[in-house]
Structure formats: structure tokens, C-alpha cells
Amino acid sequence: MEGFFALIAATLSFLIAMAVPLFAQRWRTLGIIVAVGAVFFGWLTVEMPVAGSIPSGIGAFLGGLMLFGFAGGVIARFVTLLGRRPETEQETQ
Description:
By secondary structure, the protein is an all-alpha fold. It has helices at about 1-20, 25-45, 55-80, 90. The longest helix is centred in the last third of the chain and has 29 residues, at about 55-80.
């Protein structure tokens, strides 16, 4: 039963971290999300060795899954925004 909960936690940590950057609609929003993500993952890395802290409870495995999912989401949104056609005034009306 504990293995089942571990698989659910791993899946959710990956998918939620991937979904966050996919909500960005503009370049500025993506930049803000990447900056906040860099601060979060930096904090996670620095505080991981401190016993009893939140990052210590998350653990290296789930933290790595979150980082990998976040990076995948950022790359996917970057490519989507890069390939988007510029909007003209006629299309917005």
C-alpha cells in the first residue's frame, strides 16, 4: 500500500510541476514563472540537507521529479510561444 502512495505522489509531483509553466500565455508570464521556479528550486536545493525542513520532507527523488517536470513544461511552452504566429488587428476583432 505504501508503494501505491509513493507512485501517486511521484506522478502528481511530476505532472503538477509540468502543468505550471504550461499556463503561461505570453513571454512575460513565462519569464515570471521561470524566475519563481528558479527561486523555488534553488531554495529546495539549499535547504535539502537541513533535517526537519520542508525540502527534507519532500526528498531528493520527488524534488528531482518536480524539477524535471518543470523543465519539460518550460521547454514545451517556450517552443509553443516561439512557433506562434503574430496576431494582427483583424484577427483580434
